[in-house]
C-alpha cells in the first residue's frame, strides 16, 4: 500500500458523507480502506462514471505491496499473496497460505481417485468452521504427455479444488493445460531452460505460472521481469526448497529476501511465494520421518512468507498441524474472536436438559458446542459475555462472575424455573470457585463439570440427571 | 540380508559399530522389531522399546535419524538414486502457436538487491547458565543464550548462540499425556534417574527440576526436603539446571530460596519471578547465590516490561542474569497470541527497548494441554480421523516450539524425546550448523512415491 494516512485516501473519496458504505463519514471509510476492513466497491458513489479517475487512483494507491493471484474457479478458488507487512501485528496477514497436496500420474486409477477424495474430504473442526486442504497439485512423474493429460482429466472428474499442474517439460505441461485450462490452474514451472515455451502456454491461456529458480534470486528476478514484460502478471516465485543442511538456511533467507524486497517496494519481485516442503521426501523414505520433517518445513514457511505450498504427506497428524498453523498465523490479531452472548440451544433441549455455562470466546464456545452436539447432548448453552476471554483467564480477570452469568440469562429471558425442571446450572470445571456465588445469586443448584468439555459426555453419564434433593 | 540381535546387546553395539553395517537389523527380545525396511538406525531405540505399540515406537524413534548420525549418509544415498536424476528436458519441437506479441527472445537480466535491516541497532543480552569448576560450580559445560542482533537465522547478522532444550523432571509422579508418560514410567519416582535419562538418552542440553510436591494442595513438601531433590539432580547430571517451584505464589518464594541456597555457585535459572508473588525474595536469592532469574509474565508485553524493570531497578538483578518467559500457548490454543507477543518483544529489544533486550524461554510442554495432542480421537463426529495420538502429540509440541523459535525464543522447556530431537534438528539446521550432503531438487516434480 502506498499510503498510510486516512487523509491521503479521503482526498479521492466522493466526500458525500452519505453513509452507503456502512460508516457515517467518508473519513471513517478512509480509515477502513487503510486497515483493509473496507473495500472500494462498498462506496457505490465511487463506482459512478464521473468518479472513474478517483477510483483508479485509489485502486492504485491501495493495492497491496504483494500482488494477489487467484487460482481455480467458483467457490473453492483460492487467492494468494496480497500482504502489506512483514509482521502480523503491524496489520494482519492476508490470504492464508494455500496448502496443495500432491497426486501423480503414475498412480493407478483407484489409488488416484481415493487419494483425491481423501484430500478433498479431509476436515478438522476449529472455532466454528472446518479447516481443510485448499488445492491439489498434479505431478507428472511419468513425463508422458498422454498419461499426464489422462490424470488431469481424472482428477477433475473427482474434485472441484483448484489445481497446480506440475512438469518441467512444456509438452507435458501443455497436455495437462489443454484439459484443465478452464479451471484456471496454476502452472509449475517455468525455469531458465524452458521459460519461453512455458510463457507461451501461460499467455495463450492466461494462466498463473510459477517461476522456479533454485537458489538463484537474480535468475528468479530475471524470469519475473521478463514474464511481466511479456504481459504475465500472475506470477508465483519458487526459489527452491532445499530440505536439509546449510542449504535450508539459504532457502529460508532466500524467501525472506524476496518478501523483504517486495514489501519494501521492489515491484519486480512482489509476487506470492511458493515453498515445496515435499522435498522432505527426497531425503527421508520412512513415512513418519518424512511426514514429520515435511510438517516442520511447512511450519517454517507458513510463518515465514510462503503463500502456497506443495505437500505430500496426508497423514492426519501432519495435515492437522499444518492446517492449524496456517490458521494461527493468518487470524487477524486485531480482533478477538467472539460469539454473541446469549443462551443457545444445542440439539433439541427439553426441560430435563442441562443448562451449561461457558464464555463467548469463540474458541471456548465452539469447542464446547461441538463436544455437546457431536455427542448428541441436548442442552442449553449460555455464552457469557467475557469480552471474548476463555474460561480460566476470564475467571482470573474477573470477566466470568456470578453476576455476569445472571446477566446473560436475563438477556436471553431464560428463567431457570420455567425452562427447566431441575433448577440446575453446570459450571466449567475451571470455574469451580464461582460455585458459591452462583448458588447464592441465582438460587439454583450448581454442579461443577469436567475441566475439559471433551470429558463432558462421560461426566454426564455419572452426574446427569441430578439427584433430587 | 537380515541379522538378529538382542535388545540388550544393542546399546553396547552402537558405541563401537559402524552404524551403516546395522542396516537391515532385526531385533529379538520382549518385542521383536524388524527395522530392516527402515534403512537407518536409531541410537535411542532402546528407549523406544518400552512403548506400548512396537510399530509406533520404531517409527518415532526412527525420527532421530534426523539428528544427523552417520546413518543419514546411508539413508540419503538410497534416495539419491531418485533425487539425483537430472531433469529430463529433451529439446522440444517448437510449438506452432501464435506467440504473444511481446514474446521475448532473450531473458531480461535483473539483480535482486536486499539490504540488511537498518532498524535493528541493539543486541540481545547474553546470559550464561551453569557454572564449571573454574567458576565455582560443578557443571561440565555451560549454556549461553541470547546475543542476537537480528531475528533468528536471518542473514542480517550471524546468530551467536544456538537454541537449547531443557527437559522437564518432576519431584514426584505426575499425570501426563500417555505418549509422554511411556518414556518416563521407569524413572517417575526418582528425579536423579529421570534427569540422567533425559540427558544421556534424550540429548537434553539442560534439566528443569519442578518441585511440584511443595504445593500445599499437593504434598506440601517443605522447602528443605524439596531442596534435597535439587542436590540429587545436581549429583546425577552435570548439565546446567532450571529450578521451578509448584506455581503456588505463596510457597514458591521460600521453596526457590532454599533451592537457590543448596545450588549455590551452580548458576541455575530460578523459575520464576512473576508479578503475582514476592519476586523480590526470588531476585535476592538469585543475587546472593549466583543464579539467574526467569521473569515470567502472561502474554502481555507491558507486564513483561514492568517486571523486568522491577527486577533490574528495584531488585538490582544484573542484566546478564535475566531471562524472560512471556508465556507459551499451544498450537490451536492461543499460539497466535504467544507467537506475536514474543515476536513483538524481540523486535522491540532489537530496536532498542532496554527493558526487553533479554533472551526468552518457552514452556513448550504446554502443547500437551491441547486436546489434539493427547486425546485418543476427535470428540467431533464430523472430523476426519485424527490418526494415532502417539504421532500427533510430539508434532504438536514441535510445531508450537518451532513457531516460537522463529519469533525469537532461545530456550525450550520440553517433554517428549522425539519432539526434542526434531526441534533441535530443525533449529540447528536453520542456525546453519548442520552439514548434510546437498540434495538435488532440480527435478523434484518427478519423484516416485509409494501410496501411503
Ligand atoms: C490465551 C491465554 C490468554 C489470552 C486470552 C485470550 C482469550 N481470548 O481468551 C490473554 C493474553 C488475553 C490472557 C490474559 C490473561 N490471562 Co491467560 N491464558 C491464556 C492461555 C495461554 C490459554 C487459554 C485458552 O485459550 N485456552 C483454550 C480455551 C478453549 O479453554 P477454555 O476457555 O478454558 O475452555 C475449555 C475448558 O474450560 C472447558 N470448558 C469450557 N466451558 C465449559 C463448560 C462446561 C460445563 C465444562 C464442563 C467445561 C467447559 O472446555 C474448554 C475446551 O477445553 C492460558 C494458559 C494455558 N495454556 O491454558 C492462560 C491462563 C488461562 N491465563 C491466566 C491468567 C492469570 C491471565 C491474566 C489474568 C494474566 C494477567 N496477569 O494479565 C490475563 C487475564 C485477562 C483478562 N481476563 O482480561 C492463567 C489463569 C490462572 C488461574 N487459574 O487463575 C492461565 C492458566 C495461565 C497461567 N498458568 O497462569 N490469557
Ligand atoms: S459511501 Fe462513499 S461517499 Fe458515501 S460516506 Fe461512504 S465513502 Fe463517503
TrEMBL record, chain B:
GO terms for biological process: methanogenesis, from acetate; one-carbon metabolic process. Keywords: Methanogenesis. Residues 126-375 form the CO dehydrogenase/acetyl-CoA synthase delta subunit TIM barrel domain. InterPro entries: Ac-CoA_synth_d_su_TIM-brl, ACDS_complex_subunit, CO_DH/Ac-CoA_synth_dsu, Dihydropteroate_synth-like_sf. Signal peptide: none annotated. Pathway: One-carbon metabolism; methanogenesis from acetate. Gene3D superfamilies: Dihydropteroate synthase-like (3.20.20.20). Part of a complex that catalyzes the reversible cleavage of acetyl-CoA, allowing growth on acetate as sole source of carbon and energy. Probably maintains the overall quaternary structure of the ACDS complex. Heterodimer of delta and gamma chains. The ACDS complex is made up of alpha, epsilon, beta, gamma and delta chains with a probable stoichiometry of (alpha(2)epsilon(2))(4)-beta(8)-(gamma(1)delta(1))(8). This is Acetyl-CoA decarbonylase/synthase complex subunit delta. It comes from Methanosalsum natronophilum. The gene is cdhD.
Amino acid at each position: 500500500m502506498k499510503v498510510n494516512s486516512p487523509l491521503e485516501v479521503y482526498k479521492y473519496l466522493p466526500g458525500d458523507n452519505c453513509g452507503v458504505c456502512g460508516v457515517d463519514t467518508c473519513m471513517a471509510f478512509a480509515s477502513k480502506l487503510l486497515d483493509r476492513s473496507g473495500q472500494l466497491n462498498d462506496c457505490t458513489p465511487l463506482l459512478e462514471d464521473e468518479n472513474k479517475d478517483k477510483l483508479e487512483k485509489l485502486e492504485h494507491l491501495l493495492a497491496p505491496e504483494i500482488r494477489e493471484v487467484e487460482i481455480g474457479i467458483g467457490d473453492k478458488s483460492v487467492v494468494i499473496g496480497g500482504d502489506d507487512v512483514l509482521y502480523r501485528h503491524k496489520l494482519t496477514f492476508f490470504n492464508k497460505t494455500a496448502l496443495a497436496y500432491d497426486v501423480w500420474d503414475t498412480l493407478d486409477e483407484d489409488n488416484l481417485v481415493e487419494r483425491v477424495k481423501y484430500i478433498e474430504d479431509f476436515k478438522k473442526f476449529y472455532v466454528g468452521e472446518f479447516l481443510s486442504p485448499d488445492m491439489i497439485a498434479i505431478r507428472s512423474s511419468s513425463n508422458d504427455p498422454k498419461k499426464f493429460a489422462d490424470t488431469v482429466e481424472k482428477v477433475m472428474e473427482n474434485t472441484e479444488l483448484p489445481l497446480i499442474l506440475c512438469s518441467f517439460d512444456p509438452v507435458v505441461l501443455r497436455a495437462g493445460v489443454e484439459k484443465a485450462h478452464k479451471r484456471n490452474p496454476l502452472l509449475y514451472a517455468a525455469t531458465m531452460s524452458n521459460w519461453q515455451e512455458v510463457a507461451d502456454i501461460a499467455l495463450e491461456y492466461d494462466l498463473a505460472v510459477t517461476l522456479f529458480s533454485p537458489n538463484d534470486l537474480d535468475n528468479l528476478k530475471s524470469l519475473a521481469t521478463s514474464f511481466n514484460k511479456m504481459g504475465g502478471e500472475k506470477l508465483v516465485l519458487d526459489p527452491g526448497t532445499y530440505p536439509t543442511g546449510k542449504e535450508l538456511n539459504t532457502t529460508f533467507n532466500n524467501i525472506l529476501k524476496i518478501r523483504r524486497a517486495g514489501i519494501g517496494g521492489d515491484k519486480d519481485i512482489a509476487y506470492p511465494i511458493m515453498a515445496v516442503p515435499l522435498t522432505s521426501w527426497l531425503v527421508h523414505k520412512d513415512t513418519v520421518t518424512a511426514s514429520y520433517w515435511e510438517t516442520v518445513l511447512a511450519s517454517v514457511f507458513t510463518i515465514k512468507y510462503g503463500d502456497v505450498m506443495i505437500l505430500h504427506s496426508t497423514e492426519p497428524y501432519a495435515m492437522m498441524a499444518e492446517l492449524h498453523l496456517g490458521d494461527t498465523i493468518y487470524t487477524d490479531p486485531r480482533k478477538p474472536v467472539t460469539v454473541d452472548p446469549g443462551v443457545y440451544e444445542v440439539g433439541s433441549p427439553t426441560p430435563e436438559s442441562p443448562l451449561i455455562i461457558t464464555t463467548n470466546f469463540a474458541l471456548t464456545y465452539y469447542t464446547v458446542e461441538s463436544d455437546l452436539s457431536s455427542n448428541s447432548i441436548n442442552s442449553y448453552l449460555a455464552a457469557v459475555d467475557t469480552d471474548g476471554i476463555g474460561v480460566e483467564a476470564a475467571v482470573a480477570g474477573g470477566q466470568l462472575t456470578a453476576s455476569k452469568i445472571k446477566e446473560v440469562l436475563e438477556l436471553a429471558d431464560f428463567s431457570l424455573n420455567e425452562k427447566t425442571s431441575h433448577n440446575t446450572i453446570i459450571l466449567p470445571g475451571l470455574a469451580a470457585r464461582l460455585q458459591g456465588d452462583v448458588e447464592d445469586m441465582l438460587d439454583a443448584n450448581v454442579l461443577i463439570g469436567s475441566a475439559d468439555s471433551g470429558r463432558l459426555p462421560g461426566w454426564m453419564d455419572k452426574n446427569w440427571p441430578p439427584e433430587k434433593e | 540380508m537380515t541379522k538378529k540381535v538382542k535388545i540388550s546387546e544393542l546399546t553396547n553395539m552402537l558405541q563401537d559399530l559402524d552404524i551403516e553395517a546395522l542396516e537391515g537389523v532385526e531385533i529379538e527380545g520382549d518385542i521383536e522389531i524388524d527395522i530392516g525396511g527402515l534403512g537407518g538406525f536409531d541410537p535411542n531405540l532402546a528407549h523406544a522399546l518400552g512403548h506400548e505399540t512396537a510399530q509406533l515406537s520404531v517409527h518415532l524413534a526412527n525420527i532421530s535419524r534426523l539428528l544427523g548420525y552417520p546413518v543419514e549418509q546411508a539413508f540419503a544415498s538410497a534416495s539419491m538414486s531418485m533425487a539425483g536424476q537430472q531433469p529430463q528436458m529433451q529439446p522440444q519441437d517448437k510449438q506452432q502457436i501464435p506467440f504473444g506479441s511481446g514474446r521475448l527472445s532473450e531473458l531480461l537480466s535483473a539483480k535482486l538487491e536486499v539490504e540488511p535491516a537498518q532498524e535493528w541497532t541493539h543486541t540481545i543480552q547474553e546470559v550464561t547458565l551453569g557454572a564449571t569448576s573454574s567458576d565455582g560450580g560443578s557443571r561440565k559445560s555451560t549454556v549461553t543464550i541470547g546475543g542476537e542482533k537480528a531475528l533468528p537465522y536471518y542473514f542480517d547478522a550471524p546468530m551467536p548462540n544456538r537454541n537449547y532444550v531443557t527437559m522437564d523432571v518432576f519431584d514426584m509422579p505426575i499425570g501426563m499425556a500417555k505418549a509422554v508418560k511411556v518414556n518416563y514410567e521407569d524413572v517417575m519416582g526418582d528425579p536423579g534417574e529421570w534427569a540422567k535419562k533425559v540427558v544421556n538418552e534424550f540429548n537434553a542440553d539442560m534439566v528443569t527440576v519442578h518441585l511440584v510436591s511443595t504445593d500445599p494442595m499437593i504434598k506440601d513438601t517443605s522447602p528443605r526436603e524439596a531442596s534435597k531433590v535439587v542436590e540429587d539432580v545436581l549429583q546425577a547430571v552435570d548439565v546446567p539446571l532450571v529450578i521451578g517451584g509448584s506455581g503456588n505464589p505463596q510457597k514458591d518464594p521460600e521453596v526457590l530460596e532454599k533451592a537457590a541456597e543448596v545450588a549455590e555457585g551452580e548458576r541455575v535459572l530460578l523459575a520464576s519471578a512473576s508479578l503475582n508473588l514476592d519476586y523480590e525474595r526470588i531476585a535476592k536469592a538469585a543475587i546472593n547465590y549466583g543464579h539467574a532469574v526467569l521473569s515470567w509474565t502472561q502474554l502481555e508485553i507491558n507486564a513483561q516490561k514492568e517486571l523486568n524493570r522491577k527486577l533490574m531497578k528495584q531488585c538490582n538483578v544484573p542484566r546478564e542474569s535475566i531471562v524472560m518467559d512471556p508465556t507459551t500457548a499451544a498450537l490451536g490454543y492461543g499460539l497466535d497470541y504467544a507467537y506475536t507477543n514474543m515476536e513483538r518483544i524481540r523486535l522491540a529489544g532489537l530496536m532498542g527497548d532496554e527493558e526487553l533486550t533479554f533472551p526468552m524461554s518457552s514452556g513448550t510442554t504446554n502443547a500437551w494441554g491441547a486436546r489434539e495432542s493427547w486425546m485418543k480421537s476427535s470428540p467431533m463426529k464430523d472430523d476426519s480421523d485424527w490418526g494415532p495420538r502417539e504421532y500427533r502429540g510430539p508434532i504438536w509440541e514441535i510445531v508450537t516450539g518451532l513457531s516460537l523459535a522463529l519469533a525469537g525464543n532461545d530456550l525450550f522447556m520440553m517433554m517428549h524425546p522425539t519432539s526434542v530431537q526434531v526441534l533441535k534438528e530443525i533449529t540447528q539446521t536453520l542456525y546453519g550448523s548442520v552439514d548434510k550432503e546437498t540434495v538435488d531438487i532440480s527435478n523434484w516434480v518427478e519423484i516416485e512415491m509409494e501410496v501411503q
